[in-house]
Amino acid sequence: MREVDATIVRRLDSEVPLVGQVAHYIISSGGKRLRPVLLVLTCNALGCQHPQRHNLAAVVEFIHTATLLHDDVVDESTLRRGRSTANEVFGNPASVLVGDFLYSRAFQMMVESQNMRIMQVLANATNVIAEGEVLQLMNMHDASLDEAGYLRVIRSKTAKLFEASCRIAAILADSPPDLEEACAEYGQSLGTAFQVIDDVLDYDGDAAEMGKNLGDDLREGKATLPLILAMKLGTPEEAQVVRQAIETGSTTELPRIVDIVRLTGALERTRVAAAAQAERAVAAARALPTNEFTNSLIELAAQLLQRRS
């Protein structure tokens, strides 16, 4: 990962000073680097030391970072990872345009792999992520969104890049099709579990630990799984309180909604849904060679359920 971070810093270089300022600001903000970690870790699990692995790990981080820059503009977010968002510091135009720079730099770097399959996987993933963003925008303030619709969004918007990271490792390792699919399944299931737990933390986390404002999803009118299940499990009156908050984007009833989400068992049911995805990830990882790196992938899926930030 030190090699990946060095690659990231080197490839952020631009003759336009503002590009470097904004890109370095968000890249250096203490993110988990989970997607590049997955790529490198899966390569190691498969015994692959391909010289392009660090470059491609940086590519997936650039794609992810570009989505964050655009997301924060769309969501009008002011806090990420415990400090002001890039759009809050540099303004919306700079954030959008530097996000575009990161996408285009990522595509320059992926061409260097000279592997058409890898370019196809990353181009497809980037397109699916964009579709997921638009789908989420269409679902804003829609209290009728069901669990299937919610999962469709997060599998496009979040899990797709996890899946691509693991699939790329398998391609670099020249893995047979069944092993490549196991890697992709691991990534998709892990990414889905990651986002479900992230949505739990919006109602059961600590703002200081998480580095974002509690209730942000509600303020943006997002019908996440805890809210969907709270409406399903609660009384008609409780369901109406949650529904109205989603439709209006109001957080005036946030303390009551947090109580509803907890007391109806919606939070626990959401954690169970995340656990099911984590178990799918573990099952997929067992198809990989048995070694310390595969064990780390399995442990990562288990630890994900204990996330507090």
Layout of SSEs?
Elements: H1 2-11, H2 17-27, H3 34-45, H4 53-74, E1 79-80, E2 83-84, H5 86-90, H6 92-111, H7 116-139, H8 147-172, H9 177-204, H10 207-210, H11 216-219, H12 225-233, H13 236-248, H14 254-263, H15 266-285, H16 292-304
Helix pairs in contact: 1-4, 2-6, 3-4, 3-8, 3-16, 4-6, 4-7, 4-8, 7-8, 8-9, 9-15, 12-13, 12-15, 15-16
Strand order, main sheet: write it out.
Answer: 1-2
CATH architecture heading: Orthogonal Bundle
Largest sheet: 2 strands, antiparallel
Helix content: over 70%
Kindly identify the CATH topology.
Farnesyl Diphosphate Synthase
Q: Separation of termini?
A: 21 Å
CATH class: Mainly Alpha
Regions with pLDDT < 50 over 5+ consecutive residues? none
Helix tally equals 16
Relevant CATH superfamily: Farnesyl Diphosphate Synthase
Beta content comes to under 5%
Shape: globular
Order of helices and strands: HHHHEEHHHHHHHHHHHH
Number of strands: 2
| Average of the residue pLDDT scores | 93
Sheet/helix structural class: mainly alpha
- The rounded Rg comes to 19 Å
Total domains = 1
